[in-house]
Predict the structure of Luc7-like protein 3.
Amino acid sequence: MAVLAAAQLLDELMGRNRNVAPNEKVKELNWEDPEYCKYFLAKFCPHDLFVNTRADLGACTKVHDEEVRKLFQNAKPTHHRKLQYQEDFLRFCLSMMNEVERKIIKGKQRLALSGKNDAPAVSPAQSQKNQEQINILNERINDLEAEAEQAGTDGNVEQAQGLMKLCDQLKEERDNLRKQIENGHWNATAELAAAQEKQMEVCEVCGAFLIVGDAQQRIEDHLMGKQHMGFSRLKSAVDEVSALVKAAKEERQLGRGGRMNSEERQRDRERDRERERRRERDRERERERGEGAGEESVRAEVRSH
């Protein structure tokens, strides 16, 4: 890779014919030579889009030459090799776009799953139900305490102790319900704050995770980043080259139809000439037969005399 990059740099500085001897013939440029990058000729080389990013494809092993690209651009749109290069470019770009589309879908699934797992443990409806139960327990505890106090006043110690024991059990149940409400409220508040602080979404172009409502500078940095701009450029190039390929194929089809019509007219003329030749031969044979019959009648008349 380093040698190829150095050679390309020397070509830019000294010209591609730097190693040609004075008495040697300079090789003419031909964009169909396999040494040139077909993607670079068709539009651009995808290897140049994502340098030093997670989507980096590495260095291209083919030659990128602007003069050769001009020759490619000046070639007829219907040239079969030109169409082939453009279709190869489209296939490569579409494979990359399909890959990022899968990444986008997977990212959305991750966010959806994360949202389900982070749901509050106690719902608002459950908290309200717990509060109603606490109110009932408070009334029951107050009644039991009053009954226990009355039993103690009446000298019924065992009954008073039993009522206080039941009262303690109800208080413990009430405290547990209160803790559930407090914990649920804290969790819901914390999760809401976290969700508001870092609610995530997936970029529809490059599949990166973004923070909803993030600072404008960070959003602009993402939009101007190599990965986002690279995939955005891929999509635009696919639309543009697809239109060129479609137009070229339609032109070839029309040209093929015109040639077919011309060939059909030529065949019709050939058939007409052949029919005329056959009719001429038939007339010639008729004349020959007529002349032969006349001579025979003359000879017959001479013999009769």
